[in-house]
Structures are given as C-alpha cells and as structure tokens.
C-alpha cells in the first residue's frame, strides 16, 4: 500500500477549525518529514515542517505522535503544521484579503529527516475557508459608512457586533466573517485608508462611527436592544471611545487595546481628545534592525497626557480585555489594569481581563501563525510584536472562545457553554 495523507475534514475546513492530519501506508517506525505550504494572495510563500516517526503499524497520527526535534516545532502538536507556518519573505504577516476564496494548503510527506527533503512519498491539498455556507456578505455604502456586513444563515435577528482593526487601515474582513460563522451579525468597519475615507491617521470624528452604530441598531437582522464592539490595537481605543460617548453599546471587547487615545486626534461634537504623547528616543533597535517600540508612548496618568485617557467610566456597557503579556507594541496589560481601576473608582462593574503569558500583539483568530515582527505603517520600519509561537497559538484558541462567550452572554443573555482553558 502506497503512503497517503488522510485529512479530516477531508477537502475543506473553516480556518478557525482544527484539522486532523494522519499518514497511512508507511513502513514500521519509518522516519518521515511532513511539510505544509501556503501562498497568500500576493503570492508570498509560508512553510512549516516537522520530523516524525511512524508507529509499528506504519501509521502516523499527529494527534497521537509527537514531532521529533529538528523541525519548525516539536512535541505533541496536532495543529503545529498550521500555526508554525512562517513567511519565506522576512517581516511578512499572513492576512486574508478576499474572504470569498479559501487559502490552499499543500501537505507533503518526505522520506527521512535530512537537511534537504528526501523522496516525496505522498501529497495532498486542502482548502482553509473563511465563509461558512449560507453566510451572506453584504458590502455597505450608506451615508459615509464604508464597511462589509456578514450575516449568518437563517432568519435572524442575530446579536450584532462592529469589528475594528488597527493602524493598518483598509477593510480587513476575515475576523468579522469568521465570527459571523458562529451566529453573529458582524460589521467589518473601515475608518481610514480605504476608498474615499481619509488617507492618513491625523484625526477621527466619532460621528462617523456613530453612523455605523445606528446602522446596526436599526438593521432588521440585528437583535437589539444594543450591539457589541470588538477592536484590536488602535481599533481597541476607538471602541473604548465609542462605548464612552455613543448610545446603544452593550458589550465591548478589546484585543491588546489602549484606554488612552493613541495616534490621532479624536473629535466628537465639542469634545476633543488629544493623542497620547510619544518619545521616539525610547525606541530600542536591536542588532537585527528590528525596533522595539514598547516604551515609546507616554503614560496617560501623568501631566498633560492625562487628557488622552478616554473617559470610559461614561460607558454603559460591560468590558472584556484580552491581553497578550508579551505584547511589544504597547503595554496592553497596563492599559487593561488602569481601565479597570478607573471603572471601579467610578462605581462601575469590574471588567473581565484575560491575560495570556507568551502571547504577543497580534492575537488573531485560531491557527493564524504568530507574526513576531513586521513593518509598522506609522514608524516605517519593522517592529517587534512579541510572543512565543506555541503560547501565542494557544492564546488565540482560548481568546476566540472567550470573545464569543462574552458576546453571547451580554448580547443574547445566554451563556454559550464555553469556559477558559488557561
């Protein structure tokens, strides 16, 4: 019997779902190298490989067989060949630009554990998709809003969420559509550097975000009375500002967000919140040429920078802070703790704070490979994002459950039956 790769699900799975990988038809205790390859939409190649030894029966099941030292990872890691994918081009991050097409994953089995791949024994292809069958993708161009709405299958109405990414700009849709697969109506909202929106990050007007909130509150497919906000990085402090000043927000989840306004002036009616001051002299550049910017921001607790602290005590919602304790973009844990102190000092409910040791800045949906460093649009050079690959991967899986459980609880009143694994 010739060696073959057995995958479950067989031909196609959703990107945030586990994929079971096994090889059959090998020789007893045969040594092999497994390699995965994936190209993003720009054609850049990501690869991972691991060394294995088949059982006495010639079978190899990644759920039961530990990877041996010498590859991209070692130990019992059933999904290691996905989370350990690394770009062949330095400082390149895996993102999904068109959620309507899947990523194509190539799997290969080679003979032996040599420096160079041995003879090819088996290969397979698998689609990692972003849209579940029946999820509707609706481009939204109403008033000033530039967004995409994802609606789950069925009649609805569904709990509604607005999803904001960070300083990269544009309109990333992949987190929003993966969340919609789990029963939420999710609006991926662009806020700069997209179509006719402002090109740069100089100032933001909260009235724009208010339009998006009202769009969701009045949508027939969105279950009221309030909606949720989900923001990462710069998107996080924008969500804190929305929750603090706008009506109709029930739950706000931040992934490595800030409770101070960062990077641009924020305006709403007659209110102006200046951005937190920075000191570029605090950038540390290592021998690799990668900048560590963790100490660049001033403290929002001192001097004039206190004006940048967003008055989150005005919010009428519950908060969830997802914190990577090895975040090198900024001090996410400090922001979460100070936000919690401020809420409680004003008699508000203590927020949920979930901390992940070994997780960096880009806590993405499950099985996205960790990006340790990439180009920073505002600094114009590669910066360190932090994280240790295995711990970061585990954090992404748990955080994804935490975020869904939080929104289920506060937007539907029903717990989703998930509990923290960490």
TrEMBL record:
Taxon lineage: Eukaryota, Metazoa, Chordata, Craniata, Vertebrata
Organism in which the protein naturally occurs: Loxia curvirostra
Active site: 233 (charge relay system), 327 (charge relay system), 361 (charge relay system)
PANTHER family named among the record's database cross-references: ACYL-COENZYME A THIOESTERASE 6, ACYL-COENZYME A THIOESTERASE-RELATED
Any one Gene Ontology molecular-function term assigned to this protein's record: fatty acyl-CoA hydrolase activity
Alphabetized Pfam families for the sequence: BAAT_C (PF08840), Bile_Hydr_Trans (PF04775)
Signal peptide range in chain numbering: none
GO biological process: acyl-CoA metabolic process; fatty acid metabolic process
Listed name of the protein: ACOT1 thioesterase
Keywords annotated in UniProt: Fatty acid metabolism, Lipid metabolism
Gene for this chain: Acot1_1
Entry similarity comment: Belongs to the C/M/P thioester hydrolase family.
